[in-house]
Amino acid sequence: QKEVEQNSGPLSVPEGAIASLNCTYSDRGSQSFFWYRQYSGKSPELIMFIYSNGDKEDGRFTAQLNKASQYVSLLIRDSQPSDSATYLCAVSLGQNFVFGPGTRLSVLP
Amino acid sequence: GAVVSQHPSWVICKSGTSVKIECRSLDFQATTMFWYRQFPKQSLMLMATSNEGSKATYEQGVEKDKFLINHASLTLSTLTVTSAHPEDSSFYICSALSGSHQPQHFGDGTRLSIL
């Protein structure tokens, strides 16, 4: 059974702080890694994807991948109340995707 | 780029009605489309995976005769909820994939309420 695990939260951080969201996966053959944001009542939207070990930065977001540890994380710098949402980690091998249950982030003003 | 359009956004209908939901990839060809269901405060639940021109692959516990999926072209997939009942009320979301190693792009979802 291929699994993706995330802490369900809620993770509460003060406005302006760094939010760190973590995800582990079980299938060592996984090739592609994605972070989605889902606001309450809305569908998921893609934030970032990463394929290689290391860091990938896009604006306030940084994705980090460590395939040896089967670990992927998302850092959100200068967190804003508008970042409050559920963050879904997804892992794929080809067209087979596995989503984590999501971590609920609350950014407090 | 990578826009997925899903219609309708809201459906309210009587028990026993069949409801069709459309999912279109507007600016790319989707090799694979996915259909999800999500109940309030719960995780996404994959219902089925469909590839253009072939039968959908349904997840365990999802009734294929209840949830009919047609993937007629590389840009269109439809989900028909047949003889819908109140327990089918949920948020249905489609997504499309343009190729291996690519992200899924989601439609805006359809909120289905069966009275």
Description:
The complex is a heterodimer of chains A (109) and B (115). Chain A has 109 residues and is mainly beta. Chain A is built from no helices and eleven strands. Chain A is globular and about 40 Å long. Chain B is mainly β. Helix content of chain B is 0%, strand content 51%. Chain B has no helices and eleven strands. The model of chain B has no long low-confidence stretch (mean pLDDT 94). Classes of the chains: A mainly beta (109), B mainly beta (115).
Structural class of chain A: mainly beta
Cα separation of the termini of chain B: 37 Å
How would a textbook summarize the main sheet of chain B? 7 strands, mixed
Strand content of chain B: over 45%
Q: Name the assembly state.
A: heterodimer
Please give the count of helices of chain B: 0
Residue windows where pLDDT falls under 50 for at least 5 positions of chain A: none
Please compute the radius of gyration of chain B using only Cα atoms: 13 Å
Biggest interface in this structure? Answer: A-B, 21 and 21 residues
Instruction: Tell the overall outline of chain A.
Output: globular
